[in-house]
Amino acid sequence: MGTSDLEPVSQQVRTYWDIDAATYDRSPGHHPRTALELAAWAGALRSLLPAPPARVLDVGAGTGFLSILLAKHGYAVSALDLSSAMLDRLKAKTSEAGLEITTIHADATETPLEDFDAVVERHLLWTMPGPRAALESWRRSSPSGRLVLLESLWGDAGGRAEQLRRSGHEALRRLRHGEHAHHAEYSADLRSNFPLSGGATPGDLVSLVESTSWGAARLERLRDVEWATRQALPSWADRLIGVAPHFAVVAG
Ligand SMILES: C[S@@+](CC[C@H](N)C(=O)[O-])C[C@H]1O[C@@H](n2cnc3c(N)ncnc32)[C@H](O)[C@@H]1O
């Protein structure tokens, strides 16, 4: 695909997230808030990343869940995103929390060459036209640092079990008249540009990372995060349905 073909795609993606910024944090999964969830995520990040005050680049940072948690725990964070509206939300939350985070309005395939100690992402790779090119750019931004991909199992990659789980939560949300966190779905046309738009298994992501200059990767299941996320679900029926497996792929 040539650059001229990519431009409309990245504009569509930017427009989608610019609109979604207004509602994105409605989902507890997007914006965990309980003390238990925050502690579980903090524990996971601390065990996966170099010690603070390491310099961390959060790619596709969105409204800043990871960036803000990392800054709270003493990391020097740069948050990069294609959507200025998502970054505006991140900036508002950062100043509310009395923290400092550098924001970068850019595409995740054009990351700054600043020798970061680590690059982290959560739920970005599925919406990249070139996940491998993005990973190569992140390696150039962190030539001797660490890569931490924070993902969960969903979509086609999660198989029938995860699709049923998602439908169950969705049905319960409708019964509660709960509002949706996304203003729309990507169109089939837009999704067709992204090789991981149906999700990715842990194995898919390990193979992808190992096919780049990051080299050997390891996998960690984030069981404490899963447990804390389940406790924070809004009803006993949601807790019975449970949460999708959460995991990290780490390299470098
Ligand atoms: C599903 S959200 C994840 C946000 C955040 N990482 C989180 O865990 O809540 C995906 C984010 O990636 C951003 N994004 C999508 N494509 C991008 C690209 N090519 N370059 C940079 N950011 C991108 C979107 O604007 C959005 O904020």
Structural class: alpha/beta
* SS elements, strand count: 7
CATH topology: Rossmann fold
Average the pLDDT over all residues and give the rounded result.
Answer: 94
Helix content: 40-55%
Radius of gyration (Å): 17 Å
What characterizes the major β-sheet? 7 strands, mixed
Overall form:
globular
Cofactors and ligands:
S-adenosylmethionine
Poorly predicted parts: 1-6
Q: Please give the domain count.
A: 1
Distance between the termini: 29 Å
- By CATH, the superfamily comes out as Vaccinia Virus protein VP39
Spell the H/E element sequence: HHEHEHEEHEHHHEHHE
Give the spatial strand order of the biggest sheet: 3-2-1-4-5-7-6
Which architecture would the CATH scheme give at its second level?
3-Layer(aba) Sandwich
Binned strand content = 15-25%
**Any idea of the CATH class?**
Alpha Beta
Provide a count of the helices.
10
Index terms:
252 residues; alpha/beta; Rossmann fold; 7-stranded mixed β-sheet; 10 helices; globular; binds S-adenosylmethionine
